[in-house]
Amino acid sequence: MSRESEDRERDRFASDTDRWSPWAALIGVGGLAGAYWTLLARRMRAALSEDSPEYAADTTVDPWHAGEHAAGLIRAFRDVRIMAGARLVPILCLSGLLIVLLILMNLRMPKPDNPFDRDPVRLFPDADRTWIRMAAGGRCEHRGLFGLLRCRGPIEHMDHHYPWSRGGATDRHNLVGLCARHNLRKSNGIPTLLCTWLLYRARLKYFPARLRGYAWPDGRAHSVRDDDRKELE
């Protein structure tokens, strides 16, 4: 298999993964909620069997069958409130927060509107390499733990934030300085909007004021002449 065929196959696999990941996350959270509800129903039946065995066969107290009778529904919710108590509210809140977080972690950057499928220029020039080292203080820009931690390694690789193989431009607005380990681990994966926003917020702190227009790596090709680049430095 040729290199181009391998790239196309990897891009297709990554695209399929990006498309189905949010749904898989939602299904997983729904499964956890269903498991919790089933466990709660069994606990209710066990408690009822101990306290009132003569009513243990009444399906109206089972949350899965509570909709059969209005009285059973009211009783089921009352029993849930009594048995779960104040624990149910934080569990539901945490579940909702987890769903939102999973969605944010799987929202990918949109493809930049560039006049090419692949930038004809693959490598960043020496001027851009010097520029990103100066702007980032020579330190890897990878963010970990939801943006709270920054890698302490030196900048070793010039990374296209939006991958070059997927249409990202070889431009300072798409340049991120990374250490070798984090660049190789990132490969050609499309970054999430959350990851990009965290990088943007961090760059506002350590980029010099005159360079903060480059803080958001949008992946697009900006028409900046070489003379303008020197002035921006």
SSE arrangement, N to C: HHHHEEEEHHH
How far apart, in Å, are the first and last alpha carbons?
A: 44 Å
**Helix-strand category:** mainly alpha
Count of distinct structural domains: 2
The helix count comes to 7
Kindly state the number of beta strands.
Answer: 4
Overview of the structural elements:
- The protein has 233 residues and is mostly helical.
- It has 2 domains: 104 residues, no CATH class; 107 residues, no CATH class.
- The chain contains 7 helices and 4 strands; from the N terminus they run ααααββββααα.
- A two-stranded antiparallel ribbon has the order 1-2.
- A hairpin with a 4-residue loop joins strand 1 and strand 2.
- Helix 1 runs antiparallel to helix 3.
- The longest helix has 49 residues.
- The relative contact order is 0.11.
Task: Please describe the topology of this protein.
Elements lengths: L2 H49 L18 H15 L3 H19 L19 H10 L7 E2 L4 E2 L6 E4 L14 E4 L1 H7 L6 H14 L19 H7 L1
Antiparallel strand pairs: 1-2, 3-4
Keywords: Membrane, Transmembrane, Transmembrane helix
Organism: Bifidobacterium longum subsp. infantis (strain ATCC 15697 / DSM 20088 / JCM 1222 / NCTC 11817 / S12)
Pfam families: HNH (PF01844)
